[in-house]
Write a structure and sequence with these properties.
six-stranded antiparallel sheet, four-stranded mixed sheet, 10 helices, 10 strands, about 40% helix, about 20% strand, elongated
């Protein structure tokens, strides 16, 4: 009787399956990976004692998420805030260019652009001042007449502008070199600084954001460049070095490699130059 009852209990226990804790253990998977760098014309070297992060989202996408949240001034808003004439602001918005000192800027300037944009007109006058350009019209109006004899001032100014336009149309080569006189009003430096500051903020904030919101685990490689992470729920992950670089010789690499982990299995990945971003030749987040 006792034996029959024991067999019945054993059968019932087996039908219930393994304990919940054991099922939880087998429901997870593991990630086994190694990292190596191959410098130019050299043998592969293990990435030793380097921290890798297991993320639930691509680090590139995480950096883009941070970038989108770090609102930076639009090009149009930036131009609106420049301390330049309204005419120059209008010209900048109509042209896909920010650096007024680029060689070839003279090819983009029509006579009307120069005549009706104070900064361009002054730069053109300076470029052709001092007798370097023969035949260029000279203004007869003076600032004193602007208040004392406004009609005379306006008439002489219009005559000068008409003569200068005709001269510009007949001598387009006199616009050459105008970019050398535009450095003082060139917005490129401030625009580049704005973009640089934005990029630096993203590079500073993205690693912390990744670890706060998307970190599934992290580990350091051993002296052979090998590491393993266990207890990962099944799903898609990315093995990432964040914005840190692993280097060997002339090669500097970052990784952001996708991998799928399945329950009860170990996913194996080789991190090499082939699945890395070379920060020497490409910009990385």
């Amino acid at each position: 009787m006792i034996r029959a009852r024991f067999v019945l209990l054993l059968t019932l226990f087996c039908s219930l399956g393994p304990p919940q804790s054991l099922r939880a253990q087998t429901a997870t998977g593991a990630l086994d990976f190694s990292a190596r760098i191959t410098p130019t014309a050299a043998r592969p070297e293990p990435v030793r004692q380097f921290t890798f992060y297991i993320l639930t989202k691509s680090y590139g996408e995480i950096a883009k998420e941070v970038e989108d949240k770090d609102v930076v001034s639009t090009r149009e808003a930036f131009i609106d805030n420049l301390k330049v004439s309204a005419e120059l602001k209008t010209w900048l918005k109509a042209h896909d260019i920010m650096d007024l000192t680029l060689p070839g800027i003279d090819k983009l300037l029509a006579p009307d652009d120069i005549l009706h944009t104070p900064e361009f007109l002054l730069a053109y006058q300076r470029t052709n001042s001092g007798g370097v350009t023969s035949g260029i019209p000279k203004p007869k109006f003076v600032d004193a007449d602007k208040t004392e004899r406004p009609e005379r001032y306006e008439k002489q100014k219009q005559e000068y502008m008409a003569a200068l336009k005709k001269f510009l149309q007949n001598h387009p080569e006199t616009v050459s070199g105008i970019e050398m006189e535009l450095d003082g009003v060139n917005p490129q430096r401030a625009w580049a600084q704005l973009q640089s500051n934005h990029k630096k903020r993203v590079q500073r904030l993205a690693p912390d954001f990744a670890q706060t919101r998307y970190l599934a685990g992290k580990t350091d490689t051993d002296l052979e460049g090998h590491a393993i992470v266990t207890g990962l729920p099944p799903g898609n992950y990315w093995i990432s070095s964040l914005n840190l670089e692993a280097n060997a010789g002339d090669t500097r690499l970052r990784w952001d490699v996708p991998v799928t982990v399945r329950a009860g299995q170990t996913a194996r990945v080789e991190l090499t130059n082939l699945n890395a971003t070379d920060t020497q030749s490409a910009s990385a987040p």
